[in-house]
Amino acid sequence: MLASPWRARRRGSCREVLGRVRRSGRSCACLVGAALALALAVSPGVAFAQAEALFDEGKSLMKKGKVAEACPKLEESYRLSPRSATLLALAMCHEKQGKVATAWAEYIDLGAAARKEGNKRLEADAKARGAKLELLLPRLTLSVPRAAAVEGLEVTLDGAPVDGALWGQARPIDPGQHKVSASAPGRKPWEHSVSIKRGERKSVAVPALAKDASAAAQPTPAAEAPAAPVAAASEKGSAGSGDGAAGSGKGAAGPGKGAAGPGKGAAGSGKGAAGPEKGAAAAEAGKGAAGPGKAAAGPETDAPPAAPPAAEEPEPSSGSSPRHTGSFVIEAGVAGGALIGLMDAGSFGDLSAYSYSYNIPEGELIAPCDDEVCHASFDPAIGPFVGGEAFIGFALSEELHLGARVLGGYRFGGGYLAVGGPSASMRFGRLWLGLSGLVGPVGQEAKVTGIKGEIPSEVVHLNYGRSEVAVNAREGSLPESALVETLAFGGSVDVSLVLADLPSAGWTSGALLLSVSPTVMKGLDGWVFAAPASLGYRFY
Fold first, then answer.
1. pLDDT value for 107
2. Average confidence (pLDDT) over 429-436
3. CA angle 56, 60, 63 (to 5 degrees)
4. Rounded Cα gap, residues 135 and 110, in angstroms
5. Residue 298 vs residue 471, higher pLDDT
6. What pLDDT shows up at residue 291?
7. What is the mean pLDDT of residues 162-171?
8. How does 48-75 read in b/e, with b if 16+ C-beta sit within 10 Å?
């Protein structure tokens, strides 16, 4: 009777405590949820504020010329809050820093972002800046010859792996010093440093990696097992049934030692100390370590492990690396320009209808004309021509091509040009400079100014010292113009700009070129000048 009120009070107090705990738990949960919501709401604002501060600081440093300090701040600002204005400032900073390939890629990204935003002005500005930098981009080609493309080969550039699909392709890269590395299982690693300048093109060929003898000789480590005590009484193993161990019936081969092949266990059944579980290679029950009647090698005379058979090297795919060096080069294009002929003498056909006279000791001689003693005179001829050009050669390297060039075309108003000869081209960044020796026939339609006949040298003194005289042509008998032809010899300077570089592993690998080729040639009677421009594609 006395205990009941106390029990009631105790039960009531417990309920009150549990209620308080439940209420406090709900309050804590509410507080935690509110804190998380507040953090999520505030963090974007904090990131934006940090990005703004870094952006302003980076632009201020750029104005002071401290680009090395400005660029990292702009990079962090763009990471926190990716905006077009920040990306533009970052690309300009990298451009000032000399990282033209990085800036070029950022201008491309900026153009894409501006297009999505509908900002046509910013898109056009980004494209213009990117096109300007594209002419200055250095390009590095990492080629992997067939003999070097072993299984597991990894090529890295400045520590970053280069995908096999990009081997042999000229890739834009920032000017400066770069490190090329190559490694493969069972091969010695290789490293090479290359320095590249603005607009320069270089190629690095990965050599065939030498085999690593130390790596090939080292066996796979076996699981260590506790070594059994070695019996010192005997160094010869018995061939008894069930005990094939060296010494007194115990296999004492330590880790890494044991049988060299099946059937040559270091211990008999269940008594080998080395191997994945109990023995290096457990023999069948009743067989000794070295076969029937043979003593097993002791710990001092264990046979070395047999070398694993050499794995065959896989055949690399033929398209793993496009061949630029040591391959044939073909270029073809359309050409047009101006053709200037300063051929003041020549023939326009049959001159036998004309005659001329000169003095001889007996009096005056009237001589008939022919192509041997008479020739027509012409005015200079200038006119446009259109045609084509071609180059066929061999790539001694990516920068030097040797071969032959031909140029031909029709001259409007009458005439033609068909010349060709040996040619050499060398690349300097995005420019190809070449020299060509040319020979071939040239024809032009020109105004005929008259016909002259030759006076024999023995009677020149009787003709007032003249070596030729005008032909007696009837008025109106001379044509107004005629096609004059000559064989001309000379050369051209070829300057080509790479409009688009399109390297690949296929037959379309090459470059689109815009070329001008000022040409000077000496004809048998006069001079010929040409100023052709051409648009062509060079396959290499």
1. 92
2. 90
3. 140
4. 19
5. 471
6. 38
7. 88
8. eeebeebbeebbebbeeeebeebbebbb
CA–CA distance, 185 with 41 (Å, rounded to integer): 52
Alpha-carbon torsion (470, 472, 478, 484), positive or negative? negative
Q: Which residue has the tokens 């008894």?
A: 240
Determine which helix (DSSP H) or strand (DSSP E) holds 452, and give its type and residue range.
strand 431-454
Is 404:421 a contact under the CB 8 Å cutoff? yes
- Check pLDDT > 70 for residue 296: no
Percent of the chain with pLDDT over 70: 69
Q: What is the mean pLDDT of the chain?
A: 75
3-state SS of 256-311? CCCCCCCCCCCCCCCCCCCCCCCCCCCCCCCCCECECCCCCCCHHHCCCCCCCCCC
Rounded to 5 degrees, φ, ψ at 531 are: -130, 75
Q: DSSP string covering 78-124, please? A: HHHS--HHHHHHHHHHHHHHT-HHHHHHHHHHHHHHHHHHT-HHHHH
What is the C-alpha to C-alpha distance for residues 107 and 105, in angstroms, rounded to an integer?
5
Strand partners, 289: 291
Question: Band of the pLDDT at 405, cuts 50, 70, 90?
Answer: very high
2 contact partners, CB below 8 Å, separation of at least 6? none
The amino acid present at 391, given as its one-letter code, is F
Quick one: DSSP state of residue 211?
A: B
Q: What are phi and psi of 440, to 5 degrees?
A: 160, 175
- What does the block give as tokens for 364? 């005056």
Return d(Cα 66, Cα 73) in angstroms, integer: 11
365, 357 contact by CB (below 8 A): yes
Question: Distance between CA atoms of 177 and 203, rounded to whole angstroms?
Answer: 14
What does the pLDDT read at residue 435? 95
pLDDT class for 325, splitting at 50, 70, 90?
Answer: low
Rounded to whole angstroms, the Cα distance separating 259 from 503 reads 56
Residue-wise over 295-314: b if at least 16 C-beta within 10 A, else e? Answer: bbbbbeebeebeeeeeeeee
**Distance separating the N- and C-terminal Cα atoms of the chain:** 111
How far apart CA 154 and CA 164 sit, in angstroms, is 8
Region of residue 169 (phi > 0: left; psi between -120 and 50: alpha; otherwise: beta): beta
Prediction pTM value = 0.43
Q: What are phi and psi of 286, to 5 degrees?
A: 90, 0
Q: pLDDT digits over 228-247, tens only?
A: 443 333 333 333 333 333 33
User: According to the model, what pLDDT value does residue 521 have?
Assistant: 93
Find out whether 502 and 379 touch, Cβ atoms under 8 Å. no
Residue 436 has pLDDT above 90, yes or no: yes
Q: Which helix (H) or strand (E) holds 391?
A: strand 381-395
Confidence band of 486 (pLDDT split at 50, 70, 90): confident
Measure the CA dihedral 221/227/232/236, to 10°: -50
